[in-house]
Amino acid sequence: MEITEVENGLILEYVEDFEARHIFECGQCFRWKKEQDGSYTGIAYGRVLNVKSDYENGIVLLGNTNLKDFWSIWFDYFDLGRNYGAIKEALSEDPVLGMAISHGKGIRILKQEPWELLISYIISANNSIPMISRSVGLLSEMYGKQIHYRGEAYYAFPDPVKLLEAGIDGISLCRAGFRCKYIYQAAKMVEAGEIRLQEIASMDIDNARTTLMKIPGVGPKVADCIMLFSMQKYGAYPVDVWVKRVTKHFFFDRDVKMKEIQRFAEEKFGDMAGFAQEYLFYFARDLNCK
DNA sequence: AAACAGGAACCAC
DNA sequence: GTGGTTCCTGTT
Fold it and tell me: A114-230, what's its fold?
């Protein structure tokens, strides 16, 4: 990779396995908005960033940043030190994964913030992606810190304290329905130190899952999403309806239970299950696999 | 306008 | 521990 500093941004060249559309639209994040020019603008770690990529030429343009933030935030956020070529090659031994990977070849799993993901995925339960994005956006607008970029206002995701101050009634304004009480309780547990996300992140996958599931609104699927997308637990294989459908369709072709799918993923993909899940999810949505 | 979409809680068994 | 029902908001 080669980095050039330009006016209010960076040009990255010789970047492999990076396609903004695949990264931001494979279901792992809710705060990146597509712009007219095909770039994406989002907010993470208290910074607003604009991203545009050209997969074939290995070019990524980062707007509204600098070298310091690149090395302290964005290099890790986009996991640019990871060799996705090797992962894709290994997974492609399976022909179904081979197809899925050619559909989403530029997917990278972002290293997002555990607290924001905990709340985002509590909201995701029995909910659709546009509605989840809206609720997370509303919480941020109402209770998060405002940041300006190109004359527009962006909002960081609010701290637990801010949500506690808002109370259940304040939280309910984000239109997350029955999940609002879980959001409030989660904030309470985190603020009280009853749940320590950093500690959970350092546990092995089974202990981390069990501990996360003590939080109301967090079941097996939500726990696996939090672990995969913010705690680098790449053996997690979150099974939502799409992953259930696509796994069932290509690998079973019969009625299967969640537990069977979990065991199958663990045995077939091992510590790469999370990557396989993302390729399959994006593929299933593309195919509208039912 | 009724049917459908989407995970976890909760309660029987 | 498994199975069925309910929760909320929105779209088709």
Answer: Endonuclease III; domain 1 (1.10.340)
